[in-house]
Structure formats: structure tokens, C-alpha cells
Design a protein that fits this description.
The protein is an alpha/beta fold. Helices cover 43% and strands 20% of the residues. The strands form 3 sheets. Strands 3-4-2-1-7-8-9-10 form an 8-stranded mixed beta sheet. β11, α7 and β12 form a beta-alpha-beta unit.
């Protein structure tokens, strides 16, 4: 099949959504499909066309930005051409342009599937309020036009203001998760490089963004340090110049300074470094605060490395722990409860271990791509019967 995937930001941009689509695209390509990604040329240094990991990437020029979104006047022309020449369309929301691409899928009678990764909730401001409303309307229109909607979990779908209105279209497909190997020597070298020996290690893997709830871990640290004095925190991910999060970073800067001997920013790590990072941790913390987080792929990555997780009791985000038993779920924005849960895991980490092989079987990119493939073929047969 010729499969068109659409999303706003693709590689080299780093986000959970981007990583999901990259893994899905490459897995579909490995299964013999011709895969094209239609995305934004969000940086002028990026080529308009290139091949990455067997996947054709087409980038539409960006003429302006609105908060975290982009305006791409030529996207419609590109979408029309590509939708006409592909057999299936896979759109990944939130994406302002999704409704227009979904309409083209409908007009060309191509199976059109939305994957709803999370809600879009921009920081409060008059402009962001307008953008939120426009994107919400576009998402609803796209959901109406789509043949099926993929959600990570039924839990998130039933609690999402958008997805709960389209449950008859929802198909649950777990997200694709994979983690590079890291032998004991590599992990030991990572621990030595960051002076972790003799310390308990808490990790976060995220962008420094308001919805990630970083301040709640900072507020929980005094209690954790009182119970486990030799504890360190490693933060993997972009922490400087995060688009739209400058004010949030300035607000937290004094707290980071007060814990400069306990809190280390690692920046963006490559795949091998992330594998060593997860294996060097005693616990990963996911203290997210709102529905812009729908699952937390890093939870499964951590679990595949044998590291338990403490996560917020958000729809979807609470599911990895519920599915595997590898950790604890805590109330949202509750530093005392977070401190108790982290301390409990640090005190008895081995009791939260599960088989990485069983987890991998559910979340491997190949298994997920197979689910998408079956969905595309089912929708193709349905459309063939409808229009014959």
C-alpha cells in the first residue's frame, strides 16, 4: 500500500508525537509499504524533500507561526497531490490542517484514519484562546470526516471531550515503543560520567513544559531527600528555548538553582544514551497535569529497561502502570503523594519489576504497524463495497 502520514512536526523535531509517527512510518516501510510523511518545513535549513529511514518526507514551507502552530499556504496543494496518489491517509492530531487533509481523503475515497495523540491546551492568553477554539473546531471536523479514529487507550478516549463524542469510530491501538540496547558496561560508564554511584536516581524524560508538572517533583524533593538523602534527579530532554515555554522556565529557574547539586539537565539524548539513562534510574517520574499528555511513551521505554514509574492519575497516563504493575499512580499535582510514591519505589524497587519481553510484545512498532495495516485494509474493503 501507499500510505500518507500527516503531522505538523516531524524529524529532526523531538516530541512524543514525532517519535510515535517516526516509529510507525519506519515499521510500515519495513513491512513493504511505500510511506510518505507530509509535514512542515518549520526550519528553513530543512530540505523540502528527503528520505529518512526508508520514508519519503515532504515538507511544506512555513510563512508564519501562531504560538506552537504554523501557517503553510501550499500545504493544500501538496495534500491534494499526495492524497490522490496514495491508498490510505493517516493523520496525527493535534494538527490545525487535519480537517483539510481529511476532506481530501474523503473526496478521493481513500481510507482516512485519525490518530488522536492528545488535547491541545495552550497557555492562557487571548491569542491562545482563539487558537484553541480554531484547532478544536478543526479537530471535530476532521473526526467527522475520518473513517476511523485511533486512540492509545479506551480510558483516554472515554474521558476526552473530543473522542467521547466519536466512540463508535474509535479503535484502540497501543503506541509503538522501542528502546536501544545498553549493556552493563555502557550503563556503568553513564553512571560514572554523571557521578551517580552511591546515589538513588530519579529521572524525568520530557520537554521543560508546563503540562509536564516539573514543579511538582521539585516541591516533592524536600520530603524525598529527607527519606533518601543521597538522591539525584536527571532530566533528559529539551530544557532551553522550548517553544512557548519561556515564561514557565523563568518561573522555575530559582527552584532549579536551589537544587543545582541535586538536579542535572542532560539535554536531548540519542537513542543509545536514552537506553543508558533509563537503565541508570531507580524510578522514572511522569507528573503530568493535563490532557495534553495522553499516555507517556517514556513510561513503556523505562519499563522495557526494568525501571518502574510513578505517574499522574490522568486518563491514559495511568494506564501503563495499570497494565504492567510496574510502579505507582498518584493524584494529579499532589507533591506529598508524589513524594510518598517515589520514596516507596526507592525503598523496594525490585517489587515493581515485570517481564520486559511481555511488555515489548504489546508495544513493538512491528505489532502496532500490523494493527494499522489491518485497519487500512478493512476500511479499503468497506469503501470498495460502498462505492462499487
Amino acid at each position: 500500500m501507499r500510505i500518507l502520514l500527516g503531522l505538523t512536526y516531524y524529524r529532526p523535531h523531538v516530541s512524543g508525537l514525532t517519535i510515535y509517527v517516526e516509529r510507525l512510518a519506519k515499521a510500515l516501510a519495513r513491512r513493504g509499504h511505500a510511506v510518505t510523511v507530509l509535514t512542515s518545513r518549520y526550519s528553513p535549513e530543512l530540505p523540502a524533500h528527503e528520505t529518512l529511514g526508508g520514508v519519503q518526507v515532504v515538507r511544506a514551507p512555513v510563512v508564519a507561526r501562531l504560538s506552537k502552530g504554523v501557517l503553510m499556504p501550499t500545504l493544500g496543494l501538496l495534500a491534494t497531490r499526495l492524497a490522490a496518489t496514495h491508498d490510505a491517509v493517516s493523520l496525527h492530531l493535534p494538527q490545525f490542517d487535519a480537517s483539510g487533509i481529511a476532506l481530501r481523503g474523503r473526496l478521493f475515497r481513500k481510507p482516512t484514519v485519525l490518530t488522536y495523540h492528545c488535547d491541545l491546551l495552550l497557555p492562557p492568553s487571548p491569542l491562545n484562546g482563539l487558537i484553541n477554539r480554531i484547532v478544536h473546531f478543526s479537530n471535530q471536523l476532521a473526526a467527522t470526516l475520518a473513517d476511523a479514529i485511533v486512540a492509545y487507550t479506551r480510558d483516554y478516549a472515554e474521558n476526552s471531550p473530543l473522542l467521547s463524542r466519536y466512540l463508535s469510530k474509535v479503535r484502540v491501538i497501543p503506541p509503538p515503543v522501542e528502546i536501544a540496547g545498553a549493556d552493563t558496561g555502557t550503563v556503568a560508564e553513564f553512571r560514572a560520567r554523571h557521578a551517580l554511584n552511591g546515589h538513588r536516581v530519579i529521572g524525568m524524560a520530557a520537554r521543560l513544559a508546563a503540562e509536564k508538572g516539573v514543579e511538582h517533583l521539585l516541591d516533592a524533593l524536600p520530603t524525598i531527600l529527607d527519606r533518601h538523602p543521597e538522591t539525584r534527579v536527571l532530566f533528559a530532554g529539551q530544557y532551553q528555548n522550548v517553544l512557548g515555554e519561556e515564561k514557565y522556565a523563568r518561573r522555575l529557574a530559582p527552584l532549579f538553582e536551589s537544587y543545582r547539586d541535586r538536579w542535572t539537565f542532560l539535554g536531548v539524548l540519542d537513542a543509545a544514551q536514552m537506553a543508558a539513562f533509563f537503565r541508570a534510574l531507580d524510578v522514572l517520574v511522569v507528573p503530568s497535569t493535563n490532557s495534553t499528555e495522553s499516555f507517556g511513551l517514556v513510561q513503556i521505554e523505562s519499563m522495557l529497561c526494568g525501571t518502574p514509574v510513578v505517574a499522574s492519575n490522568l486518563p491514559g497516563v495511568r494506564q501503563p502502570v495499570a497494565m504492567t504493575g510496574m510502579g505507582k499512580v498518584v493524584p494529579i499535582a499532589d507533591p506529598p503523594a508524589l513524594a510518598d510514591a517515589v520514596s516507596a519505589v526507592l525503598a523496594d524497587r525490585d517489587s515493581f519489576r515485570q517481564s520486559p519481553e511481555n511488555i515489548a510484545a504489546t508495544f513493538s512498532p512491528e505489532a502496532v504497524a500490523g494493527e494499522y495495516e489491518r485497519l487500512f485494509r478493512e476500511l479499503s474493503r468497506r469503501k470498495h463495497w460502498l462505492y462499487k
